[in-house]
Amino acid sequence: MAKRIEVSGLHAYYGGVHAIEDISMTVEPRSVTAFIGPSGCGKSTFLRTLNRMHEVIPGARVQGKVMLDDEDLYASSVDPVAVRRVVGMVFQRPNPFPTMSIYDNVAAGLKLNGVRRKSRLDEIVEESLQGANLWNEVKDRLTKPGAGLSGGQQQRLCIARAIAVQPQVLLMDEPCSALDPISTLAIEDLIAKLKSQYTIVIVTHNMQQAARVSDRTAFFNIAGTGQPGRLIEIDDTSKIFTNPEQKATEDYITGRFG
Amino acid sequence: MSSETGVETAAGARHRATGRRMSTGRAGDKIFVSAARGSGILVLAIMAAIAIFLVWKAVPALQDNDANFLTSEDWNPNATPPKFGIAQLAFGTVVSSLLALIIATPVAIGIALFIAFYSPRRLASPLGYVVDLLAAVPSIVYGLWGLLLLAGNMEGVSKFLNTVLGWIPLFGGDSPGRNSIFTASVVLAIMILPIISSLSREVFVQVPRANVEAALALGATRWETIRMAVLPYGRSGMIGASMLGLGRAMGETIAVAMVLTFVPGINVHILEDGGSTFAANIAKSFGEASTTGRGALIASGLVLFVITLIVNMAARAVVARRKEFV
């Protein structure tokens, strides 16, 4: 189910603004890779190029190559809609569909994929909610609106919605930044559990979080305002946090800037 | 509670500290308050005066009426004894407006969706202007257009509908014509299109970006995104918009008066010539009406007022429910 991502020479633009420059990296399957770096360094932009969500912003475009195993996501024959069905995403702010029940939120992606049989839907919805450690909290109120849950529960609902379609890769854009510490812990436990099945990429501003959840860490930085973001280094998390190759990485993780 | 008091205390201290500057706006405030209150009271007073005047004029005619005002299909207030009832007018008003709504709503929502999601950005705002411009065309122009151009061309459509859908009583009858309720409905539909379209567009534009992205990230196509995130979110807004359109269609006078040919009595076959509405009937009959005739027309106008009020209040209730939800 999990696939390897291989990025080479990737640039992304917003209109005339060069947002990220020449990024190359490999993300191993069944691992957690964390992106850290100061605000505006292009971590989120880069994350969104991995499921072709970058281009939904008017004027945004991408250059370079993203391989998912042996398929180029940016090949002209590839439909971005198909890419997003195999590369799931969880956003910074929990965004369940406000007009849908808990059940319908989880089933939304399945219905897009043509799953119609009630028994099959029931099964996958339960599986996904259990996978997101939410089932016990919501099993008695599946028909209630998803927006009525707490922030942490909503975010786990969004994770359940993303994994219900069994993606190859799960992208998480600062999934805990709008949550309290208890909910954050719940999500981090969940990430550790999901790692056995999915390739996970997580953007975070919280360095302790990166240290706790990830196997590999990538540090992004910008040379100055208006400059494109770059990948400074990517390595095993333990190495990045104890003995990074680059001076800038060390300065950032020791809190000398950022 | 305690926190509010705390805030007040702090604010009070700040007011005392800047006491002199606080007083500078006082005169302006007073003038503004009394001007605003005065305008509010004036509006209510004018409304009350109009209502009292209308009722005062209508009551004598209603007392002289020899027929049931609510159920009679006759409209002979100038006869002796006067016989008039609003049944035909109510039928014509409600049917033509509802039909206009059924024709206009899908088209209007289609236009709104196109402008909000499909059209290239450069085209979107000019297109919006053009649709809004439809609302600025005077209704007499629509009436002329309906009478001179549309009515002539409606005959074929009417005959076709009569042949295909004739088994439905509304589309039945033997002689589908030009100056029918159906033709009036088409004119009305075009007239209410802009209001429904521009209100729906506003609602669609307000759909949170996060909802749209959530759908896209699940691998929804553009249409699936609209169905999943946009239409459910905008549902009550669209209902409110159509109800406001319905209110407008019910009150429309001159365009309908010009299109319809008056034939007495309710005719459920809306493809045939004839039919009338409250507003059109007032416009057509007021000139040659006697005192009782005028009173009768005013009474019918009051009924229209009540119907429109109910529709508008229902629309506002639906729109207001949206606010709680988000």
TrEMBL record, chain A:
Location of the ABC transporter domain: 5-247
Coiled-coil residue windows: none
SMART domains named in the record: AAA (SM00382)
Keywords per UniProt: ATP-binding, Nucleotide-binding, Translocase, Transport
Entry's Gene Ontology molecular function annotations: ATP binding
Pfam families to which the protein is assigned, alphabetical: ABC_tran
Key word Nucleotide-binding present: yes
ATP-binding is among the record's keywords: yes
InterPro entries named in the record: AAA+_ATPase, ABC_transporter-like_ATP-bd, ABC_transporter-like_CS, P-loop_NTPase, PstB-like
Protein's UniProt name: Phosphate ABC transporter ATP-binding protein PstB
Taxonomic lineage from the root: Bacteria, Bacillati, Actinomycetota, Actinomycetes, Streptosporangiales
UniProtKB/TrEMBL annotation, chain B:
SUPFAM superfamilies xref list: MetI-like (SSF161098)
All residue ranges annotated as the ABC transmembrane type-1 domain in the record: 90-315
UniProt KW Metal-binding keyword: no
Transmembrane segments: 31-56, 89-117, 129-151, 180-199, 253-271, 295-315
Entry membrane topology: Multi-pass membrane protein
CDD domains with a match to the protein in the record: TM_PBP2
One Pfam family here: BPD_transp_1
Key words of the record: Cell membrane, Membrane, Phosphate transport, Transmembrane, Transmembrane helix, Transport
InterPro entries listed in its UniProt record: MetI-like (IPR000515), MetI-like_sf (IPR035906), Phosphate_PstC (IPR011864), Phosphate_Transport_Permease (IPR051124)
Annotated localization: Cell membrane
Positions of region (Disordered): 1-22
Function: Part of the binding-protein-dependent transport system for phosphate; probably responsible for the translocation of the substrate across the membrane.
Family: Belongs to the binding-protein-dependent transport system permease family. CysTW subfamily.
Protein's name in the database: Phosphate transport system permease protein
